[in-house]
Amino acid sequence: MSQPLPSDPRESGPEDRVPLREKIALGCGFVTSQGSHNVVHVLASPVYNVTLGMNPALISVLFFVQRIWDMMVDPLAGQVSDNFRSRFGRRRPLLGIAIVPLSVFFAGLWLLPRNVGSFSLFLYVLVVSLLFYAARSFYAIPLLGLQAEATQDYHGRTRLTGFTQIFFFVFAIAPSWLFAWVQGPMFAEPVAGVHCVGYVLGALFLLTGLVPVFLTRERLYGQVARYQERAPLWQTLRMVAANRPFVRILGMQCMASFGYNVVGVFGMYATFYYVYAGDIRSASIMQGWAGTAYQVAAIGSIFLFRRISLAKGKKWTLQFSAGILMLGSAAKMFLFQPHHPWLLVLVWVANGAGTTGITVLGLSMMADAVDYEELQTGARREGAYASALSFCDKIGYSLGALLSGFILVGIGFDVRLGGGQSAQTLYLIRLLYAVLPFAGALGAALLIHRYPLSEDRVGEIKDALQARRRQASA
After folding, report:
1. 377: which residues sit within 8 A by CB, 6+ positions away?
2. Where are the alpha helices (DSSP H) in 9-91?
3. Distance CA 95, CA 28 (A)
4. In this structure, what CATH number is given to the domain that contains residue 465?
5. Is the pTM here over 0.85, yes or no?
6. Using the 8-state DSSP alphabet, how is residue 184 labeled?
7. Which of 145, 213, 312, 466 is deepest in the core (most CB within 10 A)?
8. How far, in Å, CA of 218 to CA of 209, rounded?
9. Radius of gyration of the chain (CA)
10. Cβ–Cβ contacts within 10 Å for residue 419, how many?
11. Mean pLDDT across 418-437
């Protein structure tokens, strides 16, 4: 009797299809986990530096400490998530535990004390932000684990990741306008508007963060995870480091993240002080439109990259995304023009499409790497892989955040000069904003070139794992 042929990895079986309800629930979770960090990323420098006058170097130290702390907590969150056992699974209970402190401490970041010095404000924000990022890690890492095990279909993983990211990108349009909103006539002073941001978004993140607690399920918990041995952290990290395909994903993430984030905030300063010559009100409105263009391009690119991935595979699509980011970076020297301010929107369109492709494909490829390790060791460690990917992203972000403020000070930027920054300072802001993201995207594209998990190979792994599970069940 002939042996059955391996299943076509392009075909999704019933067990690989994720119900719409669960997709929406995961998307709501990413509004909380990624959206809360996005608000901090977008709003911190305008509020702390431009509005409250905190030294850019102090803000860089703040961002660096935040991310180092975040990096340290992530492996612990992944370890707890992989080794937790309960009648409700190992991910969802942690989501329920972490969501309340996440929402409370996020609100605390914007309920700023009045009439305090720059250093006192720095200490307040530092303490509250460390508490916020600890809670966020214990929410974000289990959520990524839930997404990674939701389907074993090669292209289904890209579709699911794209679907959940759309929820985040739709929400992320709002933070682009928050600074213009708090500067507007609705509030007697900007600080009152910032307080309102804390209350409203803290409540929103609590509500959206609870949705995946009740509407998702853990497919492989009963089949694999419940019965695997609990491993110490050092052993888990050693096994993750031995996964060669995943190591390439990590390196790619580090390069792209560092190149983009080391001068990510420079786009705001180039808009405020070069294009608009210190007219903060007008520049904040343009910044809102630019951020909106970024998110709209991100949403549109998800559909484009899904089609390209079907035809060319994940590796080629990720390299194509890096190419878009490189093209947009090279054009920055020409598109930031005081007489044609709308041209800078094209930069944000390229940024949105390029970074989205790298993020979506990286998360989808991470799930393939988890299957690869299960084939080698018999264990599933989605939490460890999610924390490692997050760790490398945050290495790039934290080093970039640390250096950016000192670079600004070193090239002569002084917020007290307003629109009177020197021509050399403004030129260097634009030059560095173009060169460093280009180099990071180029390095990421080159490093992922030898990534070995093709669609055919992932299909073979999927068939082998399904056969092993059937045998174990029998």
Report:
1. 239
2. 20-45, 56-83
3. 12
4. 1.20.1250.20
5. no
6. S
7. 145
8. 17
9. 22
10. 14
11. 89
Residue 11 lies in a domain: no
Could you tell me the two tokens for 450?
């030898």
pLDDT category, 442, cuts 50, 70, 90? very high
pLDDT of amino acid 297: 92
Specify the amino acid at residue 355.
T
Cα separation, 164 vs 53, whole angstroms: 37
Number of domains forming the structure of the chain: 1
Task: Provide the domain limits for residue 104.
Answer: 26-216+229-473
Both tokens of 436, joined, read 């460093």
Which pLDDT belongs to residue 325? Answer: 94
User: In this structure, are residues 261 and 397 in contact, taking their beta carbons and an 8 Å threshold?
Assistant: yes
Burial of 205: CB neighbours in 10 Å, binned 0-12, 13-18, 19+:
buried
Residue 4 lies in a domain: no
**Residue whose entry in the numeric block shows the structure tokens 């119900």:** 19
DSSP-derived secondary structure letter, 343:
G
- Say which range, 82-96, 165-179, 213-227, has the weakest mean pLDDT: 213-227
Q: Is residue 59 part of a domain?
A: yes
Residue 67 and residue 57: Cα distance in Å, rounded? Answer: 15
Q: Which two tokens stand for residue 290?
A: 């630019």
**Predicted confidence (pLDDT) at residue 394 exceeds the cutoff of 80:** no
